Amino acid sequence: MSGSQTPNEVAGEAVPSSQKSSWASFLKSIASFSGDLSSLTAPPFILSPISLTEFPAYWCERPGLFAAIADAKTEQDRSIAVLKWFISTLKGQYTSRNEKLGSEKKPLNPVLGELFYGHWPDQDGRGQTNLVVEQVSHHPPITAYYICNPTKGLALQGHSAQKTSFSSGSIVVKQIGHAILTVDLDDGNTEQFLITLPRLRIDGLWYGSPYIELTETSYIQSSSGWLSSIEYKGKGYFSGRSHSYKALLTPPGSSNPAKKYEGLWHEVSKDLDTDEVFTDVTSPKEEVTVGPVDVMHDFESRKLWKHVARGIREGDYEAASREKSKIENEQRQRRRDEQTAGTPWQQWHFEHVESDPVYERLVKLFNGAPPTEDTYVYQHNHSATPSIKP
């Protein structure tokens, strides 16, 4: 297959003048809504032309840093490499749409069974990195993913969901789920890393220019005992800088950090002990490579949402809304047909497991919460082409 990149997104006014009243109505509905905001329908002009199913690609838009984890020779160096790679993923996940489109946009809410496949080709001996994503639940929306670099012996398996609420003029998003990174070592053993997800807050709503700030603390716990704790700070009313973080790396059985890092996760951060640059994500990222849309399965994100995305990019919100409603109505009918036939939807690539034993074992090491969490296990069947058509 020939590769294709993410289509260019045009920057524009956050809220077009013609849509001001619609935006005001949307804000009123948010402020008065009780429960999970993900069920609310956002006006088309605030939608991103990208489905949430594509988001796991942000984990590897700097594939060289991902591959470098396998090259680290000690437990401490691997934990440093994992932390460096993780911090490098945050810009793409949480600021790229703001930079490209003039403000944060709401991703398209995936349909059940939606798929996204991609890869980053081998360059300079780093090995090829492959990506498989499936929308494994619609209510609530849950995205499962598997990323691997067989040459380097790296595999990342995870899932994510969101619970959203409104508080003090901001949308607060609790990210649910986790990721497990497995590293095959030269001695035949493996090392595993539990990666928890940061919480986030969407600010700037009243100005019509939403943007994301990460909040609280997330963790990366190695099976070797090394722990990275990452504290996120945003811009306050009187002080602070947007997208700030501070990370502490502590050795097994100790509360005294061996390494400290600080800076801006969307730009540059430093090693506080040496003052050397730790992460620098100001250079261009490497977009995931996918196949041509015309040969994709109908459930693949870029084919499924093609007409909706075109309407959003071209500012034809009426067409985008019409195409989006068409897809949603087809999915509602599919669910009704399944219920009538007594044949529930079957996942293609992932199997649900009520409790993840790796999560349970690693979360205990830093007394994290919750003590148990479910997971979706990849079945290593990417070559099995889905046969069901929307």
From TrEMBL:
**SUPFAM superfamilies in alphabetical order:** Oxysterol-binding protein-like
Q: Name one GO molecular function term.
A: oxysterol binding
**Classification via InterPro entries:** OSBP_sf, Oxysterol-bd, Oxysterol-bd_CS
Spell out the Polar residues composition-biased ranges. Answer: 378-390
Q: Where is this region: Disordered?
A: 320-347, 370-390
Please note every region of biased composition (Basic and acidic residues): 320-339
Q: Which domain of life is it from?
A: Eukaryota
Q: Which GO terms of the cellular component aspect does the record hold?
A: cytosol; membrane
Protein family (similarity comment): Belongs to the OSBP family.
Q: Tell me the protein's name.
A: Uncharacterized protein
